[in-house]
Q: What sequence folds into this?
């Protein structure tokens, strides 16, 4: 009872989340940029402004936007993954551009090996998180962890050859698949492209 004698009513408000699946944007931004960079790593064309542009806008900006959207959806994993990998692309482009512009010294092979090792370690832990998610996402993160460790080894002086590029192309294509599968499945209201079981159910 309130002080004026009237009854207080407990009102329950259910909020229906109608925001879109931002993960599709993040995955497609990551996947397309990763494929293009690793076509270069496989020896098909040199590093050029096409890759730099994709790295800034799709690899970097698109993933950061997706991470902010995932934060609004209370998705800690998505927020951490997309904002981190978006900033990874910004940092990688920065590493490429600053020495080319004469603004900073290019990093040594050992420094880049440490850089990629830290990203590989981060991705490996994030992969453990995907064990609670669908199979498609597990493939993306496991292949990405392998890619980072291969980059680490290459920069440390291990001869890997074009296998690095082909593994990276596979990683990027797996992310593109995971993104577009979710788009098509949502549009058609059924499983068009399977992404594997989540919590024991097929999606």
A:
């Amino acid at each position: 009872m309130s002080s004026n004698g009237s009854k207080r009513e407990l009102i329950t408000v259910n909020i229906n989340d109608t925001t879109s699946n931002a993960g599709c944007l993040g995955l497609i931004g990551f996947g397309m940029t990763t494929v293009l960079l690793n076509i270069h790593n496989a020896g098909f064309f040199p590093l050029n402004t096409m890759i730099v542009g994709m790295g800034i806008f799709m690899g970097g900006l698109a993933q950061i936007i997706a991470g902010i959207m995932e934060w609004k959806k209370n998705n800690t994993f998505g927020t951490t993954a997309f904002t981190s990998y978006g900033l990874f692309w910004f940092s990688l482009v920065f590493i490429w551009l600053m020495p080319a512009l004469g603004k900073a010294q290019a990093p040594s092979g050992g420094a880049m090996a440490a850089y990629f090792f830290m990203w590989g370690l981060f991705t490996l832990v994030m992969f453990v998180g995907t064990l609670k998610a669908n199979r498609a996402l597990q493939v993306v993160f496991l292949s990405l962890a392998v890619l980072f460790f291969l980059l680490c080894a290459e920069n440390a002086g291990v001869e890997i050859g074009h296998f690095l590029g082909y593994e990276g192309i596979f990683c990027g294509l797996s992310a593109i698949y995971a993104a577009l599968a979710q788009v098509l499945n949502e549009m058609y209201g059924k499983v068009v492209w399977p992404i594997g079981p989540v919590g024991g159910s097929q999606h």
Q: What stands out?
A: The two ends are 49 Å apart (CA to CA). Strands lie at 197-198, 201-202. The longest strand covers residues 197-198. Residues 199-203 have pLDDT under 50 and may be disordered.
